[in-house]
Amino acid sequence: MDHRLLEIVACPVCKGKVVLDKEKQELICKFDRLAYPIKDGIPMMLEVEARKMGMDEGR
Known about the structure:
The protein is mostly beta strands.
């Protein structure tokens, strides 16, 4: 994923920053504990597409 795009993409729920998890191909919102999938290089930034993260993830 292009790092310039990562600088402007925000969590649609809280409008906060997201962090790229290259291994899982997800954009992570640590505040809301949501992981947005990246499919074919395109971030799926919809709350309904997001995976709720477990308490032990994202530290």
